[in-house]
Structure formats: C-alpha cells, structure tokens
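note to self: dont lose this again. the chain is below, predicted strucutre after it. 360 aa total, dont forget to put it in the shared folder this time
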Amino acid sequence: MRITLVALALFAASLCIFVASGQSVVPRITVSGNGFVVSGSAETFTPWGFNYNQDWEHRFIEDYWGDEWSRVEEDFDELQALGANVVRIYLQYRRFMDGPTSPNEINLSRLKDLVILAEDRGIYLDIVGLGSFRPEEDPAWYVDLSEPERWAAQATFWETIAETLADRPGVFAFNLMNEPVVSGERLERGAWVHPDEIEGLHYVQYINLDPNGRNRADIAVAWIRQMKRAIRTHDRQRPITVGMFPLLGSVDATGFSPRRLAAELDFISVHVYPETGRSDETLELLEGYDVGLPILIEEIFPLNIGLDEYRSFLDSSREIADGWVSFYWGETAEELAARAEPRAGLVRDAIVVFEEFKPR
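---
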C-alpha cells in the first residue's frame, strides 16, 4: 500500500514538472476521412472557437505580446471560459522575418510561448501566416521581390514556423494565407496586397503579379506545393489548409478552386458572411466547397444579417460543415455591454448567439 502511494505521488510530481516545463499532454488533432479526430483514437473533434486576430484597438497580437503578456493570458482565460477549443491567430510576415532568410528569434520564441499557453487552457491554435495587413509597414525588400523570390521568402517563413512548433501538439493546423487571390491580369510592381481595406487593415493578398499565360488554378497549386514542401521539411503530419472565400458568388473566382485543391490540402477552410434573405444562396456556395474533405467555416459573423436568420443559418450549416470559428477581440460579452459604440453591441450579440450554437 505504502509503495503504491509513493509511486502515485512520484507520478503526480513528475506530471507537474512535465506540464510546467511546457511539455503538454494535449493530444494532437488529425484529419480522418471527412472529419477531425483526436490522434490515436476514434474520438471526434469538432472545432469551435474564435478568430483572435486583433484587439479592440485593431492591434495584432504580435503588436503587444511583448509588453502586455498578462493581457494575452487574460484573453485566453476568457476564450477558455467561452468554451473555445480552437483559436485562430494571424501572423504578420514582417514580424517573423527580418530578411528573406533571417527569422526574428524573439517573436518565434513568443509564438512558442503562446502555443504552450493555449495548450495549458485546452485550446488548439489555427495559425494563419504571411499576413500583410498594413502593407505600408511591410519592408521594401519584401515588397520589391520578384514572384519566385517572394515565394521562396514565404516558404522560408513557413519552414521556420514549422521547425519552431514541430513538437507542439497544440497547433491545430497551419493556414498558409488568409484569403489569397491569383491575379488574372498584370499588376503594378509591388502591388501584392489588394487595395480594399476594413478599418485600415488589408485582408486579401495576391500570390502573383502577372499570370504570364499560366492557368490561375495551376498557379495556386504550384504556390501551395512550395509552401507545403517547406512545412513538411520539419513537420510531416500537421494539417495544412488555406483561407478561401467565395468571390462574386463563385467558389473558383479567386483562382483557389476547391476541387483543384482537394488533392493538395488536408481540409477546406472557407469564410462566409451570410446576408439577409440570401442564406440559402450562401448554403449553396458552401456545398461547392464539399470536395471530400472536412469543411471548417473559419470565419463567420452576422455582419449583414439579423440575429434570428444568423441562428437559422448556423443550424442549417451543420449539414455541411465540420467546425466553426467566429470572432473575439479581447472583450467578453459583459465588457462589451458597457461600451457605447454600436459595433460593441453587434459583437456582444454575435458572441451570445454563437455560444448558444456551440456543439454539445
């Protein structure tokens, strides 16, 4: 009896040391057939969580995680309390690469800290890369690269991220880029970022400046393969995807055709913002992304739709999607209720509805 108690005590002590040292016991998530599962088991995993892409002042996490780490910890406590099992973060290229082949070791170390923090809260990170959300802040050397040079620099970014996080089970997936587009016409030199913006932030990028006679879908496939090779140098199993959105009501209009990419990606990530009276059309668009892979609705928000119709859309999407990610900007529903600006009320109501929808 005494030997058993001593053994249990030693095991508990070693487990505490194991967790405290950052060696998380969180199991990896993998893709199996048309869904997500906990690695090594048949247990289904349903991604449900939030985009943590910026705070209320439109700062990205790398803008403040150096001086305000306690705030990041508080936010992840709130995300945990909301019940999130996946949180999507956006990495800006310029924060992680000081040159085409020169990683920023300080931010890489902080990124690893973030993954360990998330693991401690039982949260997996969906990591989006290559952000150029404020193109005016991108270094000139990056903007001026040719297409082959830019692709090589982007591949180095992904190889660096993959090497840094290869041993972390708390990374749900690598998302190569947020809403990339293949240009079908020649663009001006350095015009890699789409001019449209939302509150000063640019979410859409081009992966090329000139199709030069190439098929747009072929360009997308070639770019994805180069990024994947870089990741697989250090990480052979991590699910890989890319953030797609239906442009002008078409699943193929961006050049990132889901059917062409089915053989290249591990699951489909799609961004949808249903509009009032057009929920059925959006559901039909979602069906266009059903190419035999799991479907993650990686962005969804009632930006252009009433809350009742939003509830209905979420419920209807269960027939198509395998996971959902909405938005959280560092403020709980209670904190948002104290804010006077109209968008605070919208975000608060969206969180409440999304919580009601949470898979049980």
